[in-house]
Structures are given as C-alpha cells and as structure tokens.
Design a protein that fits this description.
The chain folds into three domains: 10-23 and 208-305, Cobalt-precorrin-4 Transmethylase, domain 1 (3-Layer(aba) Sandwich); 25-108 and 313-319, Rossmann fold (3-Layer(aba) Sandwich); 110-194, 3-Layer(aba) Sandwich (Cobalt-precorrin-4 Transmethylase, domain 1). Helix content is 40%, strand content 19%. It is built from twelve helices and twelve strands. The strands form three sheets. A five-stranded parallel beta sheet has the order 10-9-11-1-12, with helices on both faces.
Length: 321
C-alpha cells in the first residue's frame, strides 16, 4: 500500500445504537393526526404549541401546511385546531369549544391517563402533589385539569422535603410522564415516608417509552467513550436520556439536534460511541448521524436492544377510515 493510500485510510470506530429509541406511540399518533387532518381538511390546520418537541418534525409539518400558534386567539373562526401530544388545560379546551373551532385532540393517551387520575383524586377530596417541571406544557395541562390551588407542583427534593399540604391525610401524587425514573423514585419515596396515607397511581405515570429508552441507554453507557442523544433542547425526555447515560456510567454524554451539531474534535480518539434518540426525534436523524460517522470512520455498527415495543394508539374517530 502506498503512503498516500495509507494516509487516506479511515480510523475505526464502534457505534452502538441503543434500542428502543426515537418515536414513541404517542408521538407517532400526534404526527399522524396532523397529516390526516391536512389530507382531510386541507391546509392550514392550526397547532396550539409544537405538536411534539422536535424542530425537525415541526418544520416538516409546517412545509405540509400546518401552522403553529401559541394561543387559540391566533386561530381564525371556523379553523381546525389540534392540541399537542402534551395535552391542554380544561380552560383551553373550553375556550376552543366556545369558539366552535374544529378540535382534534392529539394528547398522548398516557398523558390523558394522568389527567383522569388527578380528576379522580380531586373528586375524592384529595389534594394532588404533581411531580414535574414548571413551565412544561404537559405539567401546565395536567395542573389545568383542576381548580387553582388543588395541585402543588413538586420539582425537586427540596420541594418534597418541605411541602405542607392542607390535609396530609387526604393526599395523592401524580407525575409528568417524561421524567427521570431515578429522580422520580427518590421523590416518591420521600413523599411516602412523610405522608404514609398518600395515594398514588396503580401503575407509574412515567410512560413505557421513557422507561425503555432510559434503561436502553444505561445498558450501553458505561462501555462508551461518549454517548450522543439525538433530540431537541426543548424535549424533557431527551434531557432525561442524557442524565440516564451519566447515571449509567457514561464518561461523556451530549445532546445534539442532528448530525450537524456533532463536535468531531470531541469524538477524536474515541473507540466506542453509543447513540440514542428522544421519543420525539425521528429515526431519520439517527440515520443521518450514522452516515456522518461513516464518512469519517470505518464504522462497526451494533444494536443493543433491551425491550421490544408494539404499542400503538388510535387516531380520533373523525380522522379514522
């Protein structure tokens, strides 16, 4: 082999894809609702907030004719409005009905389950402690299922240690569906220790997809020199995957929106890279990352699978068929 050929030889790298990764059933359903609505009603259809937390998905749907708005007053009379996968408050839903807008609800059914739980607890006279992140649309939608003051938000260990509910004997908790399993477990343990009578969900509120993706990345993190998580900076579950990678022993874990965000100087010298994607990140972005590695490296590609997912959710009846 000549010296020039030797210099052109790509370095080798092992790329481990964690599975499951990427779109969950709730995200797939939400995107499908937008696509079907555009096909049935024609553009524009209006989305209150991002349908899911991924800029690439939002841009693609915008090109198809979707319009994203912050509030309902931006939707014209007789318009079609889609509520995002994160859910909305009762006040927002009531306002849409009052204006006689055509409503398509893309709320993830697992978020709707949490809404039903907090409504049941409130009807039974219990104050609700909601574990979640302030300002996240899912949290705003869940808190908005009940009257003001009926829910107290627990964001941290300090909150769990200090919360003073009106009646400790009539108390319940629920959680945002996209949280860290480890952090949430610690907060729930604190609440159960402080309030032995507290009621909780029959099954945990953190969704199957969040659980599976966090476990999958933990399984490969320790053996990797660097972990890359594909996802939007606005995505709660993508940030939780970065945290799960660190807990799993990752030397370094980084959130990227796409292959364009990879800091190749940080990859230099790595023997093994682990890769996953948040539940609102399309698999096409993962494939682009793999191809970007192949342009620079001789890639040994592996897949590490910890669970098989076969969950699917139906679209609203108005769009079925």
């Amino acid at each position: 082999m000549g010296s020039s050929e030797h210099l052109a030889q790509k370095p080798q790298i092992r790329l481990v894809l964690a599975a499951p990764r990427g779109f969950c059933a709730g995200v797939e359903r939400a995107i499908r609702i937008v696509e079907l609505a555009l096909r049935k009603f024609g553009p524009p259809v209006y989305m209150r907030h991002a349908i899911v937390h991924n800029n690439h998905v939002v841009r693609r749907l915008t090109r198809l004719g979707a319009k994203f708005v912050n509030e309902l007053d931006e939707v014209p009379d007789n318009g079609t409005v889609i509520f995002s996968a994160h859910g909305v408050s009762k006040a927002v839903a009531a306002d849409a009905r009052r204006r006689k807008l055509c409503i398509l609800d893309a709320t993830c059914p697992l978020v709707s389950k949490v809404h039903a739980e907090v409504a049941r607890h409130h009807a039974a006279g219990r104050h609700v402690l909601l574990i979640g992140h302030a300002g996240h649309p899912e949290v705003e939608g869940t808190m908005g299922q009940l009257p003001p003051g009926a829910v107290t938000l627990i964001e941290s260990q300090a909150d769990a240690d200090a919360v003073a509910p009106p009646d400790p004997g009539r108390l319940a908790y629920a959680t945002q569906t996209t949280l860290s399993l480890d952090d949430t477990r610690a907060l729930v343990d604190t609440l159960r220790r402080r309030f032995p009578a507290i009621e909780g969900p029959h099954k945990q509120d953190i969704c199957y997809a969040t659980t599976n993706r966090q476990q999958a990345i933990k399984n490969v993190a320790a053996a990797a020199d660097i972990v890359l998580i594909v996802g939007s900076p606005a995505s709660s579950n993508a940030h939780r995957l970065v945290e799960a990678a660190h807990r799993g022993g990752a030397k370094r874990a980084v959130l990227i929106e796409s292959a364009a965000d990879i800091d190749w100087s940080g990859i230099h010298g790595a023997a093994t890279v682990a890769l996953s994607a948040g539940a609102s990140a399309p698999e096409s972005l993962v494939r682009e990352v793999v191809e970007a590695f192949r342009r620079r490296y001789e890639v040994a590609l592996e897949e590490s699978t910890t669970a098989r997912e076969n969950v699917s959710f139906n679209v609203p009846r108005a769009l079925a068929g």
